[in-house]
Amino acid sequence: MNRKYQMKSSIRANNKNIRRRRRLIGFFTGVILALSLFFIGQALLIKPAQPAIASNASAAAQPAKPSKSTASAVKGASTVLPQDTATKSPEGGDWRLILVNPKNRLAADFTVKLTKLSNSQSIDERCYPDLQKMMDDCRAAGLHPLICSSFRSYEKQQQLFDNKVKKLVAQGDSEETARKKAATVIAVPGTSEHQTGLALDIVDLSNQNLDESQAKTPVQQWLMKNCMNYGFILRYPEDKTDITNITYEPWHYRYVGKDAAKEICDKNICLEEYLGR
Ligand SMILES: [Zn+2]
Questions:
Q1: Cα 10 to ligand 1 centroid, rounded to whole Å
Q2: pLDDT (tens digit per residue) in 162-204
Q3: Where in the sequence numbering do the catalytic residues fall?
Q4: pLDDT above 90 coverage of the chain, percent
Q5: What are phi and psi of 216, to 5 degrees?
Q6: Residue 96 has pLDDT above 50, yes or no
Q7: I want to staple 204 with a disulfide (CB 3.0 to 4.6 A). Which of 82, 129, 219, 239 is the partner?
């Protein structure tokens, strides 16, 4: 009797243990399941990375600070503006392919992190290494390129435009006519590619005129032949004026990155055609 009772109670205890174990297993399985669902949910909620959008005033309005970079600038000291901002590109796309023209305006609060070159020129710091290499190689070929224009802030572009309007009004034009006329020679603020920090006007030291004679200079001949290898394109070619709506500018170069630059040059298309816009 006693042994039977012992057996029964040990079976009961065993059953109890099994039930407890099952409950524990059930509990932990539930916890693991819940955690898995939580993490899967989180992963699905994470959006693709977007470039940061800066809302500060123009970078040019900020004081420049000496750069820690020891790389020699395009002939001159290098300084980087102290803003922690990224380029705002349309539709969150590739910053190198930003399209700026009269139909695609840049926001007034557009900012870009700049690297300062000589002659108080500055460019988007991300294309600086390629520009430096292009200028170095051009010089190594015995030529004398000179960057005469680069990044321009919205304010600077506005100032240039307003000055032109003022001049025309002083010459007898009405305000409206003056604005229309000014827009044919100076880009309306927000429509100049120079505001992106990705555009440069480069001339030959021996001929600093911004006219078609520039195309014949040794510097332009070299740049037109080689710029794509450094990620630059001649932005306003002679045979694309009906698409760009900008007259031939054999001095205005635009950074688009090496892949795009090579494709654009190989196919003999302009940026608008490349982007299908
Ligand atoms: Zn230009």
A1: 93
A2: 999 999 999 999 999 999 999 878 889 999 999 999 999 999 9
A3: 249
A4: 60
A5: -90, -5
A6: yes
A7: 219
